[in-house]
Amino acid sequence: MNIPFNAPHLTGKETEYMIEAVSRGKLSGNGEYTKRCQAFFEQRYGYKKCLLTTSGTDALEMCAMLCDLHPGDEVIVPSYTFVSTALAFLREGAKVVFADSGKNNPNIDPELIESLITPRTKVIAPVHYAGIACDMDAIMALAEKYNLLVVEDDAQGLDSYYKSPITNQKMPLGGIGHLAAISFHETKNITAGGEGGLLIINDERFIRRAEILWEKGTNRAEFFRGEVNKYGWVDMGSSFLPAEINAAFLWAQLEHLDEIQDKRKQLWDRYWELLKPLADKGFFTLPEIPDYATNNAHMFYLVFPDLEKRTKFIAHLKEAGILSVFHYLSLHTSKYYEAKHDGRALPECDHYADCLVRLPMFYDLTIEQVEEICGVIKEWTENIGRI
Fold first, then answer.
1. Alpha helices, DSSP H only, in the chain?
2. Whole-angstrom Cα distance, residue 94 to residue 78?
3. How many whole angstroms separate alpha carbon 279 and alpha carbon 277?
C-alpha cells in the first residue's frame, strides 16, 4: 500500500486552456481567463468584487493593506492557523493578538474575543479551519459593536457556507466579513497550478483601492476600462496579479467544481462512517460540524488524547504506506513571536497542535483506499495496548 497525503487533481482541460492563453498573446494577467474566473466567483457566490492573486497569502496581504493599519493597531487572530494569517497584518505594522481555539473544533472561540478587544483593536481575522465556518453571527456582532473590520481567512473554505440561526440566511464563507481571502494552493480543493489565491471584497468602499493595490499602486484598471485617459502611480501596491496561464489552469478546475466537491464529500462521509465506531470508543475524536456550518470536505482529521498517541498513530500508518500529517504549531509559541506574545496560555490551540492529525484527502483517492486506511486504523486500535 502506498497512499500519499495529497495529490493534485487534473480535470483534463488544464493544458488545453493554458495553450489557448498563450495563443491569445496575453500572459501577464488580467486577461480573458482571469476575468472568467473572477466573474465565476461573483456570480456563483454573490461576492461584490473578486480579484485573482498569486497566492492566498497575497490575498491576505491585500486585505491587511486595505484595512489601513498603523503601528500600534491591534488585530485579533487565532493562534492555531498558518503563519500567513498573522504575517499579513504584521507587515502593515500592526500588533497581532492571538486568540484561543474552541474546545470542540480548532476555530477561534467567539466567547473569548471580546475580552481581547481594546481601543487599539481594528480587525478580527477569523480562520474557517478545514472549511468549517466560525460562528460568524457572534463575530460580526462584535465587529458592529466596536466598529471593527472583519477579514475572513477562508483559505480552506471554498464552496462552504454559514447558516445563520439568527437570519436563517445561508451565506458563502468569504462573503460575510468586509474582506476575505481564498487559497488555490495545490493542497486545496481546487488549484491554480500549484499556487494562487482570491481577494474577496464585500464592502464597496474598498473596491477602487483594491484594484489599485492589485495593479502595483497604479490606476491601470481604470485606464483599460476607459475611465481615465492615462494612468499613473497613485498608491502603494505590489505585483499581486497571477499569470494568465494560472488563471487558465484554474478555469479548467472551476468547470468541474461540483464534480470535485461531490467526490470529496463521498470520501469524507465514508471516513466518518467507518471511523465513528472507533471514536465512540474513545480512541480519538472526529471533526465537529456545528449546526450553522456546512462541510466542503477539504480535510478529514482526528484528534488524539495526547501527543504520544498521535506520534505512534502517524508512525503506524507510515509503516503501512499511508502518509498522515499533523498540522499547525501554535503561532504564539513560535520562535519568532513567542517574546512578543502577552504571555496568556492558549491551551486549546496547544492541544490541537499536539493532538490533531490529518488523513489523506484528495479527489483521486478512491473509496476502496479510504476503506483500506480505516482498516489500518482499526488494526491500530485493536493493538493500541501493545504499541
1. 14-24, 32-45, 56-66, 83-90, 110-113, 136-146, 207-214, 220-224, 244-254, 257-280, 307-319, 347-355, 367-382
2. 15
3. 5
- The SS3 of residue 58 is helix
Q: Residue 22 corresponds to which cell in the numbers above?
A: 498563450
Query: For 138-207, what is the HEC assignment?
Result: HHHHHHHHHCCEEEEECCCCCCCEEECCCCCCEEECCCCCCEEEEECCCCCCCCCCCCCEEEEECCHHHH
CA distance 29 to 292: 37
Name the stretches of the chain with pLDDT < 70: 223-224, 229-230, 385-387
The set of residues, in sequence order, having a beta carbon less than 8 Å from that of 102 and lying 6+ positions away, is 108, 109, 110, 348
All three cell numbers of 337, joined, read: 513571536
What phi and psi values does residue 332 have, to the nearest 5 degrees? Answer: -70, -15
Q: Which residues pair with 325 in a beta bridge?
A: 358
Q: What whole-number distance in Å separates Cα of residue 135 and Cα of residue 124?
A: 13
**If you search the block for the grid coordinates 487558465, which residue do you land on?**
248
The predicted pLDDT at position 115 comes to: 97
